[in-house]
Amino acid sequence: MNQLLDDLIKVMTLERLERNLFRGQSRDVGSPQVFGGQVLGQALVAASATTEDRVVHSLHAYFLRRGDFNSPIVYEVDRAMDGKHFSSRRIVAIQHGQQIFNMSASFQVAETGLEHQISMPQVPPPESLADAESYYRKAADMLPPAARRVLEQRRPFEFRPVQAPDLLRREKSEPLKYIWFRAVDALNADEALHRCLLAYVSDFHLLDTALKPHGVSMISSKLVMASIDHAMWFHRSVRVDDWLLYAIDSPSSSGARGFARGSVFARDGRLVASAAQEGLIRVKS
C-alpha cells in the first residue's frame, strides 16, 4: 500500500483503553493545529468499534478547541441507545484534560426502502483534469511560507479540481466548487473503513467555497478561519479508493460565519453522501 495511505490507516487505528475509551495519535499536516477531518474520522472509528452489524448513516459534530498534534487524543464513547434497527452514540474527544470536540452519530442495520436522488452535475471526467498539486507547485513562489508549508504537504488523497484553483483569489466568483478525489491506493472492502475515511476527507474544500463570492483567499494574512461544526449523511455504499465527485456550494455567509454544503457522488452517478459545515470567517481590518 502507498506509504501515505498506510500512515493514514494507522492514524485511524485507535488503541482501546477500556470498553468505551480509545486513544489516537495525530499527524502534522502543516497547519498549527490537528486537522479537523482527522478528529472527525477518529471519533467515527471509536463509535463504530462499539457497534455490530450496522454502519453509520449520519453524524453531527462540533469543534470546540484546537487540537495539539504533539499529544494523543482520548475518545470517550457513550452508548446512548441500541435499538432493533438503530444505534445512537455520543463521542467526546479529550486532550490536556479538556474537551476539544464532541459528536453524535447514528448507526443503522442495512434495510431497503423508497429511493430517489438528485442528479450528478455534468463535469469533465477526472482523467482529463490536472492534479491539485500541480497548481500548488506553479504558485509556490508567490505564497507566504506558512501557506506553502500546508499546500506542499503530500496527501493520502488525490484531488482533481474541475475549476482551476485561484490560490491568491483576486477576483470574486460564484460560491461553487466541483472537485474529484480518491485515495491514492486500493483499500479493502470494509464499508465502515470507507465511511470513516470519507468523513476524514470531507473536511477538505468546504469552507473555502464560502470565500469565493468575496474575493478572499484562504492564505490571506487578514483572514481568521476555523471550522465550528460538521454534519454528514451517508446515503449509499461508498468506496473512497474510486473517484468521487465533491459538488460544493455555499448558500450563505453572515455574522462572521460561512456555511457550505457538499454532495458526494460516485462515478456511476450515485449520491453516496452529503456534508454540511459552518465555520468562523473573520476578516481583520
List the helices and strands and how they pair.
Elements: H1 3-11, E1 15-18, E2 21-24, H2 36-48, E3 55-63, E4 73-82, E5 86-95, E6 98-108, H3 132-139, H4 145-151, E7 157-161, E8 176-183, H5 191-201, H6 206-209, E9 223-234, E10 244-254, E11 257-266, E12 271-283
Antiparallel strand pairs: 1-2, 2-4, 3-6, 3-9, 4-5, 5-6, 7-8, 8-10, 9-12, 10-11, 11-12
Key words describing this protein structure:
single chain, 285 residues, alpha+beta, 12-stranded antiparallel sheet, 12 strands
Count every helix, treating DSSP H or I runs of 4 or more residues as helices. 6
Regarding quaternary structure, what we see is: single chain
* Integer-rounded radius of gyration: 18 Å
- Ends distance: 47 Å
- Spatially, the strands of the biggest sheet line up as 1-2-4-5-6-3-9-12-11-10-8-7
Give the helices and strands as they follow along the chain. Answer: HEEHEEEEHHEEHHEEEE
Helix content: 10-25%
Shape: globular
Number of strands: 12
Low-confidence spans: pLDDT under 50, at least 5 residues?
none
Average pLDDT over all residues: 94
Strand content: 35-45%
Please summarize the sheet with the most strands: 12 strands, antiparallel
- Structural class comes to alpha+beta
